[in-house]
Amino acid sequence: MPALPFPGFLRVSAGQRRWLARYHGWLLGALWLLVQLLLLWKHGGPRSVTDSRRYLLYAQQIAEQWYFEHDHNLRYVGYPVYCSLWLKSGAGLWGIVLGQMVVAGLAAWAFYRALLQLTGRRLVAAGATALLLLWPDTQNLNAYILTESLFTSGILLCFWALTFVSGRWGITRLLVLALATALLRPNGFLIPMALAGAAGWQLWPRLTPRQRGVVVVAVAAVMPLLWMVLNKLLLTFTLIETYLRGEIIYLYPGWTVQPRQPLQLPPADLGPVLRLAYFILHNPAYFAQLALLKAFALFSGLKPYYSRVHIVAAVVVLYPCYWLAWRGSRAAAFPGIVRCFLVALIGLQALVVMLTIEDWDVRFLVPMLPAIFALAALGMAAWLPGCLGGPPRAALPETLPEARPAL
To answer: Which residues cross the membrane (predicted)?
Structure first.
């Protein structure tokens, strides 16, 4: 990928590079601490919202009776288990939120270490980590009793574990982190799916015809289980009803779509997956319009009730990150399995939103931002060879290097 001209006024002098190389770790640590203190001050301590109450009730049931629900809340089981540990210890809401902040700090450190390993550039790794800490949406949810804080941190830790994967211990660590993250939210299954897709994309060309046949048979054998799980996940979500209302953003009447012709509805006796497939196949134009508008609402940052400052910040910060992330996804100098994992996470999360509905806030975008920022950092490193101090790092092999001591 050819390098583009680099504005001279943004160049970093040798003295500045030495100073940043020496003190950037302390600066990032101080930045993390300052942001968390500001969040606690802003919200007046732990923040509870509507969804928080059911998580806390579920956590209390686990802490006191070791009781696990079997319906909708089962999809969030990982988070109530986490909350129950703090309730059991007596730390309450403060323990939950402070724990989330500490995990977010560890995840930010892991993010930095992964990017440094991939790019070999401290300034790129530190800059992306500073953006992760400073962008309000990525840290704000640390103060809330919601799943998104731990879910976002889990994605960051999976990215780090994949970057440093080596040997059985590295693979085991990656799988444990992926499973723990997957249990936090209904869409957590995207993490193992993205990992499986990235691994398959990398390994498939190296397999013999016989090995490929074994893989195909294994996938076919697992499909009935996946079908059952997907039906279970969709059982309590009223997707068809949201389609009939034409909603783009959940419970927001300002953006809706009205069908131009009568909709064909699925039979009531079909399972959730078949109902969804029936609606899409029989109303393709209407569904495509809904899906594209949901994707726009997800990525654009232009929701009508956002403040002008929020909208301008999204355009100025996120849009360039999207462009750099696109370049980073195509940068062959970095391991294909890592790039594929990050792209798959973004694509799968966007697909889930397009099939379901966009949230009125940023809760569905926030878990994708670590993947976007990571790819943007790779794009930046590929875009600026020689401009950030020293020659560009040599292309990394497709098989990832040995892990350094970490965590």
So the answer is: 20-41, 91-112, 141-162, 174-201, 213-235, 276-299, 305-325, 337-357, 363-384
